[in-house]
Every structure is written in C-alpha cells, then in structure tokens.
Amino acid sequence: MPPSASTAGGRRQARWSRESIIEKIQDWAELHGEPPTSADWNPSLARWRAQEWRIPRYRDGDWPSTNAVKRWFGGSFDAAVLCAGLTPRAPGPKRLAGSVAPAPRVDGEPAEVAARLRTAEARAAHAERRAERAEGRLDELRRRARRATEQAGRARRARDRLRDEESASARRVESISAEAEARVRAALDQAEAAARDAIDARRVARAAQGAAAAADARAEAALRLEAAAREELGRGKADAAWRAVRAAEARAQSAEARSRELAELVCGERRELTAAELAALRAGGPSGPTVLAARLRGLARARASGDRSALARALGEVASAAVRWRDSL
What whole-number distance in Å separates Cα of residue 262 and Cα of residue 255? Predict the structure, then answer.
C-alpha cells in the first residue's frame, strides 16, 4: 500500500487532495455497493474491531487512509462521505477477538461466498465503467493527437513558407547589393577619370600660360629692339639699324612660330589655312614688329581673362599681323 503522503525538501506533502478523496469514495461505493467506513480504510482499526475481512479489500486497491480523509474534512470521515453525495453507514457490531460468527446461508451458500460474488460483480461493473471512461479518454486523446498533428502540419507549412520567403528576400538583397556595388565602382571610375582629366587640363593650362608669358617677353624684347633700331637710325647708324631690324624680324618670326604653337596648344589640333582665310589675314591694316608685339600682348590678356571668344579673336589678330609683316618683307 503506498503512503498517503511523501517528503520533499524536508517537508511533508499530501498525496491526496479533497477532490481525489471524494472520487475514491464514489469509486468504493460503485465497487462494493456501499460507501466506505473509517474501518475500511484503517487496517489497525479493523483489527481492533475484529473486522479483519475489511483489510484485503483495502489492500487490493489504491485507497487513501482514514487519517488522510479526516485531515481534509475537519476530522470527520462521515463528512467526506456526505460531500461525495452518499449516506454514511453505521459502524456495525464488533467481533470479539478469536470468535467466529456463524455464516448465514443465502440459497444454500454461506454469506461470505455470496458477498464475494457480489464483490466480484461490483468489481466487474466498476471495471467496465472504468474501461468506458478509459475509452472515452482514449478517444479524447486521439482527437487531441489529430488536432496536434494538424497544428504541427500547419506550423511546418508556415515554417516552409517563411523559409522560402527568407530565401527570396536574401536573393533580392544580394542582387540589390551587387547592383549597388557595381554602381559605386562605376562612379569611382568616373570620378578617377574626371580627376585625371582635370589634372591634364591644369597641366595644359600651365603650359599655355608659360607659352603666353614667353610670347609677351619676346614681344617686349622686339619693342625694345625696335626702339633701339629707331634710335640708331636717328643717329645715322644705318648698318647697325639694319642689323637690329633683321634681328627684330628674326625674333618676330620666332614669336610667330611660338604663336602658332600656342594656337595649336589652345585649339587642340593643327590645320592648314584656306586661301580665303589667308586673304582675310593679308587684307589692310598696318604691319611690322610693333604691330605684332601689340597683338601678342592682346593675346596674353585674352588668355589670362579666360574668355574663349576674346582668345580666338586675339589669335586671329596675331596671325593677321604676322602674315602682313611677312608679306611686306
């Protein structure tokens, strides 16, 4: 017989509850055809009352002890029977120790055999009822199992859908990331190319500025030579003047060549002038080193201002002055 209480953590814990005790009282009544008494669930009390026949019935099943019942129902066993919806039984006469009561006969059989038959029938009926309850519980468990299986299937399908959506999202993110990286690389390449172009443009600009400064210096030198030549001519030194003139012409030719180089550098390509363009350059206007020097200074100013139309106009004036001076030689 298992104990009615257990020990856990140094404290005594009740094995039976109020509801389980009421259920056991009802099961006893169904099994034996009558509610239990305090002697039925207390072997010591059954021996003291000389009712040892109650002890096997108590030990054949899983029943609470009389003390466990009284603990939950204020010390009264009959109160527990009343709570189970049954009428408490009177304890009945006590048997003296060592005495044997005559066994009454029922239909020619001893009363004990008849009682055992009734007990067996009651037990069979109780077993049938318990089997029916077990079958009902089994059906309920099967229904719960089916519901759990359906829920598991739905959860599995939802998990698969979620996994598929996560995979699609991951693929989309990878595609977008790859496209963004390609765009960034293209932007970086364009920025590097623009930086290189800017560096080249600054280099060309510095070279053009240097060439313009050199042309200005040569023009100023030509002006000084012209002034020196005039001064020499005014003093009657013709030979020296002619030498100065020829030197000025040589420098003018050099300046003209430099101006052509500068024009090629600024315009970006070299081309031959047409006959109409040469005629336009030769038409009218003064010529000589002074005129060419003035046109070169105008070219330097136009280059420094950064105005492309003024620069083109200054280049045309330089070319026209150089061609007219060359034709006059």
Answer: 10
User: Distance (Å, rounded) from C-alpha 100 to C-alpha 121?
Assistant: 26
Q: Strand 109-110 and strand 11-14: pairing?
A: unpaired
Name which of 3, 12, 16 is nearest 73 in CA terms: 16
**Distance linking the first and last C-alpha atoms of the chain:** 146
Same domain, 116 and 212: no
Q: How far is it, in rounded angstroms, from Cα 327 to Cα 265?
A: 26
- CA-to-CA dists, residue 3 to 8, 16, 67, 175, angstroms: 14, 10, 11, 70
Q: Nearest to residue 321, comparing CAs of 288, 298, 297? A: 288
Closest CA to 24 of 8, 40, 10: 40
In whole angstroms, what is the distance from residue 99 CA to residue 183 CA? 111
Alpha-carbon distance of 221 to 227, in angstroms, equals 10
Number of separate domains in the chain: 2
In this prediction, residue 118 carries a pLDDT of 66
SS3 106: strand
Domain shared by 137 and 252, yes or no: no
**Lowest-confidence pick of 16-25, 80-89, 201-210, 267-276:** 267-276
The whole-model pTM stands at 0.31
CA proximity to 244, closest of 289, 291, 292: 289
6: phi then psi, degrees, rounded to nearest 5: -130, 165
